[in-house]
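Pilot study result, target chain (288 residues):
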Amino acid sequence: MASGLYSQHLNNRKLYYIRQVVLVVFLVLFALISLFPIVYMIAWSFGPAIEAASTSYSIFPKSWSLDSYKAFIDYNQYSLRWLFNSLVVAVFTVLGNVIFAGMAGYAFAKINFRGRKVLFFMVLVAMMIPYQVTQVPLYILIVKQFKLTNTFAALILPGICTSYNIFLSKQFFSGIPTALIESAKIEGCGHLKTYGLIVLPLSKTILAVMAINTFLSSWNNFFWPFLATSTDRMFTIQVGLKTFKFANGTLLSPMMAGACISAIPMFILFFSLQKYFLEGVTVGAVKG
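Predicted structure:
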């Protein structure tokens, strides 16, 4: 009987190791599939700086050099300005969301005013509307009515306060004890003073998460900057990379070199604030 139990134990151990091996193989394959576009981009950024037809692409370039990075910079006199434009738009969009969405979330969470539930319901409805649906009326308003084509205002204003960030901050602020707010009122603090001295110091995590998500979204945005700009000088980096694609071919390696350069700020931001980003995964689960 003891030998039977020992044999069963060995079989269970074998099954356990088999499951572990299968799991590791699956995870490695999944990681390789996920990382392949990044590897492809980095590899081709060191390819030859010549125009290539779509039929001549391969997984890796046949010759490797740094010529494509120089070709990206020399391709257009505004190549580096595209990066500057993207940085300006992303930074001001982040500031707008942290300030305005944060204050709106605090108002919805801690201030009782008439129509609060209706307004917050409208914010939730706005979250459900596809981004592309709003582009036509937004284009008519910003470009046709206000004549803001090729300006930073046209690139920044549409995303300066998003419904998602309002919802996110509201959910977080709902978890802050109301007793703190009431204590501040007793001490004579108004809402702005309470928000600045008490709420903000407790909200570093949610504000960092909002900043990371908003920066990444603004930096990677292509569709709206493509509609709102028509001159090379005001292109963002994502729109500028489109100019490397022609009717019958593409400057693939210079375009990939530009994509690699444009990815550097995102990698730096994510890895430097990774702690806050991972904490933000559960922020939306806080009950109000």
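One observation from the pilot: Residues 284-288 have pLDDT under 50 and may be disordered. A full batch analysis is planned for the follow-on phase.
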